[in-house]
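Lab meeting minutes (informal)
Scribe: AK
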Amino acid sequence: GRMNWRRPEQSIYNPVYRDFFAPESVLTPDGRRVMWAWLATLDDAINQKTIQFLPRQLSVAEDGSFRLQPLRELESLRYDGVTFNNLVVTPPKQVDGKMITPRLTELDGDALEVRITIDRAEAWRKRFGFQLFADQDHLGLPIMLHPETATIRLGDTEAPFAVADLPADEDLELRIFIDKYLVEVFVNDRQAVVSAYMNYQGASGLHGYTFGVSTTIKQIEIWRLKSTNRGFLEARQNRIWETTSQ
């Protein structure tokens, strides 16, 4: 299974460093294959820094296809969840030379998980997507599904994915993880892409985009996420690990 996708500015002749670099994995006691990797080259501002991707669970489905999904323990970090149902996204309007897309909600916080579910029939053969960190003056970071090329796009990175390949009874599901300027998108446990958006503080809107006709979103769920090292920081403060006897 491939998990690394060349961006346009990256050399086709010198593939020594790519965004998803130096992967390692472990087999958990309950039999899951879990991997992580170094995020090496997404942006010059963070080039070669010690930043890790989210851990991913890898598996093989009954039909022999490769599956990858975010580590299920990440769900324990969720809090303050909100849910929106049956949101209609209309095509953008041109106002004073700007493309204005519908605002779905504000993304309050800099560590979030956003899960978006769209009925498969609604997503069938339709170009649509979302914009993170957007408002009327900022197009933000695009997440776009292109049926004509059978790809999903995050920023300027494209990876293979087609709604047409999903079973007839399976809805489209995007799981978007935001950690300040880092964004990882998982789609139906079949594909994942990552990007960095350094102007993440410029705007905080989640906008929807659709081409030609409206698109109805079945559900959007948003959670804030606790820090993964919160337990360590608390233990260092309360020193719960110290023995009470000599």
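Next up, CB showed the second protein from the same session:
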Amino acid sequence: MIERQEDVTTAALAVMERTVDPRLREIMVALVRHLHAFVREVQLTEAEFREATAVINELGQRSGAAHNETVLMAGSLGVSSLVCLLNNGDGGQTETSQSLLGPFWRLRSPRVPNGGSIVRSATPGEPLIVTGRVVDRDGRPIAGAEVDVWHASPVGLYEHQDPEQAEMNLRGKLVTGEDGRFGFRTVKMVGYPVPTDGVVGRLLRAQNRHPFRPAHLHTLIFKDGYKTLISQVYDPRDPHLDTDVQFGVTRALIGDFVRHDEPHPDAPDVTAPWYALDYTYVMEPGVAELPRAPIA
């Protein structure tokens, strides 16, 4: 029987302890313990509790086939980045190529031959030639890895957000060669604001935070025998590099977008100025599995 407020926590923990699955039991016991401690620490009022449950409901209601507000909120609180770093790089002790999946990855990107283009509709912007190398922790090349790439356009929109772009524009899937290399042509991306018309936007305004993500290239690399590598490579010249709204930038993920002011020596249709990015992705041993796509 509940006689004091402390008894609520004792009773709830006793119920959580009866959870059959050991990992779920560990999570639920810790969740109740910390959640109850949080309520006590901030002395949460009844009105604030009602508002909090309404916010949780709205996160789900605003998530759909083209937008995931819950993933956006997790990133805006730093949770996504923390989970990523805790689970990679020797438990957060060393640098890692892993990063956030983000809310805009889609399944079934079109296949692209190495050296091909992922630009599928008129997309004004400075040409970008991307080359990459996929290696294991000892630096040995990984052949036959599937490399899924995607990024925002030079106006800061992903193709599903922009009716001016063709379906799957600036998205593609390549396969590494025997030397672990892949490459493709695209246009240089820019930083962009995350959607601010929902719960996340209200939070950012209340905290006087800007909504911008620095310019970045997404990759998801899949190969049997290796943990699926999800990565983002950032432009070091972006003005929001140190204040990413999603807390996703680590030193290991900063690329080198080299500007060239002369014509491309092997591709006369690549007009100056153009940029080149070369980056090495390091995969760790593990289980190859695809995450659930946040949007359809």
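CB comment: The chain is about 25% helix and 20% strand.
No objections, moving on.
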